[in-house]
Amino acid sequence: MRMGGVTAETGCLRLTPIRASRCAVCGVREASFCAVLSASELQQLHAMSSQKVFEPGELIVEEDAAVRQVANVLSGTIKLFKLLPDGRQQITGFLFGGDFLGPMLSGEYATFAEAVTRVELCLFDQDRLREQMDAWPHLERRLFEDATATLDRALDWMLLLGRKTATERVASFFVMLADRVASRDDVQLTVDVPMSRSDIADYLGLTMETVSRQISHLKRQGLLEPSGAHAFTLPDVPALRRIAGGNEPN
After folding, report:
1. Domain interval for residue 91
2. Considering 99, 117, 150, which residue would you say is the last residue of a domain?
3. What does pTM read for this prediction?
4. What is the CATH number of the domain that holds 40?
5. Rounded to an integer, what distance in angstroms lies between the CA atom of residue 63 and that of residue 227?
6. How confident is the model at residue 170 (pLDDT cuts 50, 70, 90)?
7. Structural domain includes residue 178
8. What is the rounded CA–CA span in Å between residue 58 and residue 60?
9. Angle CA(87)–CA(91)–CA(93) in degrees, nearest 5?
């Protein structure tokens, strides 16, 4: 498991302490479990935190590796995946800024985690964070709520693979991106799509060709508009949401 830089001389993890001022101006503080902490609690939390950056394609954790550290995602996109016996990968989800990486109760990671883009993590020793959960019940509640939300997303993914059509799957993917960056009430917004078509196809259980065809289909319906190399504008999120739910217009 690679959760920190390794020095050539000692082979030891080289972690960069996070300054208190960084926590105070953290861009994902309100989206992460840190949102429930007071200023004094945040000061204590930052004292046991470290920062690490991973470049695109770099492995962050390995499946079945012992959990020693967990992390808040400060920026970037991470893909979670399992490897099948024949070497194929199955992507089970994506993490974005404000998400939490790592189990608090289990002693092993359930999946591999790999950086899709440049990823910045705020790292915590799992045992020490557990101790803080005992001292701060509101932190324990927030982490439980986050774990429940993660489980809900996993159930949605199972429904997506098991019952939805190709069009519904691709629409659901863009709705998922929209919900992660904005309010569910937003009618129009632009989402970054840093994943490759291959990763999108793997996540949705489709071929790349099918994903491309369905994106073209949604573009013709006026529901997707390319906005640069790795972004799409969603002109009518409610309509896209209806398609994701199985109510495609004629």
Report:
1. 7-150
2. 150
3. 0.84
4. 2.60.120.10
5. 35
6. very high
7. yes
8. 6
9. 155
